[in-house]
Design brief:
alpha+beta; 6-stranded antiparallel beta sheet; 5-stranded mixed beta sheet; 12 helices; 36% helix; 25% strand
């Protein structure tokens, strides 16, 4: 019989309420019939409900990483509470009578397999991606030219700000810049629009409290905006001159409104097969400039040790339509995973995955991937963080000799005696103080730390924010 865990149910549920309601149905004996196929790929349940007739719910595990749920109830949630209740019945080890797989399910499986086979075929006889139609190419060309117009407008704005000084962004000027930021949406420029919004927010905050931190952040944002504008103009001009208006693996593609599809990333060779990723940290941030909540998962590849990130964007205007991600205490086994272009911690996505516990062998592998010395890691990461268009942080596994206090700071020391101050990245939930709350002091000696390197502009030094401890027996999360 199939093994189902609470973690798998939580990962499949659209929200915590649906999961709780499904558990209640199972605990109250809501099913009057339970059946499963001999090959253990199909489960069916007849559940009493609020309607005149019982509901028929099923789970098709032909692809265990992407089970298909069906139910005769009118709920718009997917999976519904009855489907989740069926999973709870499986998890509880209830008795399921053996049955044949219904003919309609077999037909649906056949259609799905045919569709997948068609999608896997090359776009043309030469096996190359199909060239865009003349209409599509003309539309893309028009969009690129429109973006260049917007970038010219932004460039003039930035130059005016540099010449006049950020102090001029006060009073009525702020509302003018807010209007300009909104206008950039008409030019298909989400990256510059986001940075201009962030600049406006920092200047407004500086005018309220006079904190130098806001002014420093505003200077950094202005630098990033100018760099993005300059590089984007070169990038778009080059694409138009070469008559190559489609997607590519340049980092600027996404900054300028490009949206990656999994098949596009696969066409660029940015896909790995049969990956096993252990989640080591999870956090949620609200990006005021984007007006979005961002659910971020930090994952380690059990085969290579590579640290990658998942992002789930939830715009404020669409919160009720976008499911919030949650912590995963275990390993995602995905048939394939696509990685976004870039440096440092790549963004990763997958369509389906099975979630299993992290084994002792997996823990040992993670500890083995940890960098043994600070100096080489700090040097490499620092160079990547200097990129104005890059991420403000980079997560790595570091083996340490001890964590203690020195000079008023909490510091990490490696086996060679090199140290780095531990500190919290602005905008990220504070974690450094949690090291002092650990019940066992020995956890601060001879272990492995998952930390986020970042550059403190106020103190002009690299720091490391602790995210998790990886011991021989467990992962102790400080940010989960």
């Amino acid at each position: 019989m199939r093994q189902i865990t609470q973690q798998q149910i939580d990962a499949l549920a659209p929200n915590a309420t649906a999961s709780a309601n499904g558990r209640k149905i199972s605990q109250k004996g809501g099913f009057v019939r339970l059946e499963r196929s001999a090959d253990d790929t199909f489960y069916l349940g007849e559940c009493s409900g609020s309607g005149k007739s019982n509901y028929i719910t099923s789970a098709d595990f032909l692809d265990p990483a992407a089970p298909v749920f069906r139910c005769s109830c009118p709920s718009r949630q997917f999976p519904c509470k009855h489907s989740l209740a069926l999973l709870y019945e499986i998890m509880a080890g209830k008795t399921f009578q053996e049955c044949e797989i219904p003919e309609d399910i077999l037909q649906k499986r056949a259609k799905k397999e045919a569709k997948a086979a068609k999608a896997a075929q090359p776009a043309d006889q030469g096996g190359k991606p199909k060239a865009p139609s003349k209409t599509s190419k003309a539309a893309q060309t028009k969009k690129l030219k429109k973006q260049l117009e917007g970038l010219d407008l932004t460039a003039k704005l930035v130059q005016d700000l540099i010449n006049a000084g950020l102090g001029t962004m006060g009073g009525t000027a702020l509302s003018t810049y807010q209007g300009l930021a909104k206008q950039l949406g008409d030019y298909y420029l989400p990256g510059p629009q986001r940075l201009l919004n962030r600049l406006v927010l920092e200047i407004a905050a500086f005018q309220k409290d006079g904190s130098d931190a806001h002014y420093e952040t505003a200077i950094d944002t202005l630098e990033r905006l100018w760099t993005l504008v300059k590089k984007s103009r070169q990038y778009l001009t080059g694409k138009l001159e070469r008559d190559e208006v489609g997607q590519d693996d340049n980092l600027l593609f996404e900054e300028l409104g490009g949206v990656w599809k999994l098949d596009q990333l696969a066409a660029l060779g940015l896909v790995k097969q049969n990956v096993k990723l252990a989640q080591l940290a999870f956090w949620v941030q609200f990006d005021e400039a984007r007006k979005e909540y961002i659910d971020t998962g930090c994952w380690a590849d059990l085969e290579t040790g590579e640290i990658s990130l998942t992002y789930n964007y939830r715009p404020v205007k669409a919160l009720k339509y976008v499911k919030q991600e949650d912590t995963v205490f275990g390993v995602a086994q995905a048939p394939s995973a696509a990685y976004y272009p870039g440096e440092g911690n790549h963004r990763v996505r997958w369509e389906s995955a099975e979630y299993v516990p992290l084994s002792p062998e997996g823990l040992a592998a993670l500890r083995g991937f940890a960098a043994p010395a600070l100096a080489p890691e700090v040097k490499e990461v620092k160079n990547r963080l200097k990129n104005p268009l890059g991420s403000p942080m980079e997560c790595q596994l570091i083996r340490f000799a001890s964590i203690g206090t020195a000079g008023g700071y909490t510091v990490l020391q490696d086996a060679a005696g090199q140290t780095i101050a531990l500190g919290d990245l602005p905008g990220l939930e504070r974690t450094t103080h949690r090291l002092g709350l650990l019940p066992d002091p020995s956890l601060l000696e001879g272990q492995v730390l998952l930390g986020a390197f970042w550059y403190d502009r106020e103190e002009r030094r690299m720091k490391l924010q602790p995210l998790s401890l990886v011991t021989e027996t467990d992962v102790i999360r400080l940010l989960y």
